[in-house]
Amino acid sequence: MAEPLKLKAKSASPGIASGPAFLAEEPKAASAPGTGGGYGALEKAIDISIGELERLADGADAESRDIIDFQIEVLRDPTIAEATGARMKADENVVFAWVATLDAYIGELEAADEEQMRARAIDILDIKNRVLGALAGTPVADFPPGSVFVGKDMEPSRFLAHDWSKGGGIALFAGSAAGHVALLARAKSVPMVVGTGRFSAADGDSVAVDGDGGAVILEAGGMLIPPLAPAGDIKTESGELRTADGVPILLSININDPAEIDALDPATTGVGLMRSEFSVTSIADAANEERQLAIYRRVLEQAGERPVIIRMLDIGGDKPLAGLEDLPALEPGLRGIRLLLARPEIARVQARALLRAAVFGKLSVMLPMVTFPDEIDRMRELFREEAEKLGRRSLLHRMPPIGMMVEVPSAALMLDTFGSAAFFSFGTNDLTQYLTASVRDGNEADAGKAAPAVLRLIEQAVELAGGKPVSICGDMAGDPRYLPGLLAAGLRHFSVAPARRRAIRSAIVGLNADGTRAAGE
Predict the structure, then answer these.
(1) Catalytic residue list contains 180
(2) CA–CA separation, 284 vs 427, rounded Å?
(3) Are 496 and 504 in contact (CB under 8 A)?
(4) Across all residues in the chain, what is the average pLDDT?
(5) What is the third-level CATH fold of 39-136?
(6) DSSP3 helix / strand / coil % (the chain, rounded to 5)
(7) Measuring CA to CA, which residue among 460, 428, 480, 434 is closest to residue 273?
(8) Phi, psi for residue 502 in degrees, rounded to 5
(9) Closest C-alpha among 107, 149, 148 to residue 125
(10) Could you tell me which of 456, 386, 363, 382 has the C-alpha nearest to residue 420?
């Protein structure tokens, strides 16, 4: 008799659960019904949906109410109504106009760099399906108590409407440990794993969820289904990427979570940016050297021979860390390397974890928000001190190359003075913000208008880099509109969100190294 199959997953909520599988259909939009009532019918469906959510909120705990309040706020958002109205003026059916508006919102979230933002896409999809269900008179059905929910993802309202007192668990092919369902599962002690990959099972099959060890156990006969190769992503045998005129280009990915390392493939040269702050969510995490080591080691081991650049904690300012506000003598507005140097106890723990992790792969360390050369010198000295301590304890370690993010305009203008930096990587999100005196999340129109100034600054900075390795990992790297200018500025290494990799790869092969479009394109 065949042995049960154990599939590796990522724990999203601890605990062990087993039960009959409930195979959920992939979250998708229901067929839009006719709307003889026009916009009034849509408004009524939205009101019904708000009423349903308010009933779910009755007696719910604080975390559940916060999630429900978020969904109600989105349903009442006047900007969504305005965008829908604009589509209706273009002769779109009211329901399709509203769905297209939400689909655009979902697409933006799914393409975001930050995992927390991508995890919110299922919330908007949940809202969309709830309203369409109200329009069609077909609300989403519950599933049997005690079941193990199996699907690509799970809607927060579906979790809240289910009776978990009879047991059960959740196993998601994709999903996120940073999403609202994972938050709810932890609050209600429902075992949950994410990132299993698609596997075969039938309704009623016995399934066990190991939320402690991060695994799914299928009864004999279960199997993992290999993912389909993405269409249109043709690569050479070596995975080498070149411009139309034959200049080699490096294409890496940005990750926020170790699970995202799975987005690497033979056509990807490595991890150009891992934002470590998304794996360190509290002061307690920041103080836990072993936890950080385990995270970095996993990424490096899965990357194999490919390089990985891990950015030290970019916290402070508009990136709060739970418990950070309780630290004494912390000046408001401190962020990035300035905060790490002001609170060296945080930096030393991370430095030790990175030094120990470096023996498991090709690690480089990147410093955030660097403004002055002495900041790099001071951090390098801190690494040397911690390396000596590890040596005295006979702990394996290796000193990694230490480079810097170029996201402060004054640093970009003086890049030739940063002699101790091993490499440079342009963070265009903050660089644009500080160059234009705008908010970080400014609108796209402003970002487009600022692009010529940002590109000019990058071109000057690349010349000042003096031949040291230079890359770009900000949002501009993942936008095909800016590729001609970035190539013309001399950039040959791009690191983008996994969702943007295919688009950027396709765009690069149609351009020459000077940014001009190839003949015939």
Answers:
(1) yes
(2) 28
(3) yes
(4) 83
(5) Enzyme I; Chain A, domain 2 (1.10.274)
(6) 45, 15, 40
(7) 428
(8) -60, -45
(9) 107
(10) 382
Q: Are 140 and 133 in contact (CB under 8 A)?
A: yes
- The answer to whether the predicted template modeling score (pTM) of the entire model surpasses 0.70 is no
CB-count exposure of residue 41 (10 Å: 0-12, 13-18, 19+)? middle
Q: What is the pLDDT of residue 261?
A: 80
- Beta strand segments in 47-127, E: none
Q: What is the pLDDT of residue 356?
A: 95
Residue ranges covered by each domain of the chain: 5-24+143-224, 39-136, 241-508
Are β-strands 215-218 and 206-210 bridged in parallel, bridged antiparallel, or unpaired?
A: antiparallel
CA 397 to centroid of chain Cα atoms: 29
5-24+143-224 topology per CATH: Glucose Oxidase; domain 1 (3.50.30)
Please give the CATH architecture assigned to the domain spanning 241-508: Alpha-Beta Barrel (3.20)
Residue 44 to residue 39: CA distance in whole angstroms: 9
State the amino acid at position 2 in one-letter form: A
Are 99 and 29 spatial neighbours (Cβ–Cβ below 8 Å)?
A: yes
pLDDT in tens, 205-224: 888 999 988 988 887 555 55
Instruction: Give 302-348 pLDDT, tens digit per residue.
Output: 899 999 999 999 987 666 676 665 554 456 568 899 999 998 988 99
Those residues whose C-beta lies under 8 Å from the C-beta of residue 450, and which sit 6 or more positions away, are: 432, 435, 436, 438
Beta strands in 219-348 (DSSP E): 223-224, 241-242, 248-255, 271-275, 308-311
Most confidently predicted of 74-78, 257-261, 302-306, 414-418: 414-418
Of the residues 162, 397, 473, 493, only one is catalytic, namely 473
**Structural contact between residues 31 and 136, judged by C-beta atoms closer than 8 angstroms:** yes
For every residue of 372-402, DSSP letters joined together read SHHHHHHHHHHHHHHHHHHHHTT-------E
Q: Which of 162, 180, 397, 493 is catalytic?
A: 180
* Residue burial 275-286, b: 16+ Cβ < 10 Å; e: rest: bbbbbbeebebb
Report the alpha-carbon distance of residue 37 to residue 35 in Å, rounded. 5
For residue 319, give the DSSP letter.
B
Instruction: Please report which confidence band the pLDDT of residue 27 belongs to, taking 50, 70 and 90 as the band edges.
Output: very low
Active-site residue, 397 included: no
List Cβ neighbours of 162 (8 Å cut-off, separation of 6 or more).
Answer: 142, 143, 145, 168
Q: Using DSSP bridges, classify how beta strands 199-200 and 223-224 pair: parallel, antiparallel or unpaired.
A: antiparallel
Cβ 245 vs Cβ 254: under 8 Å: no
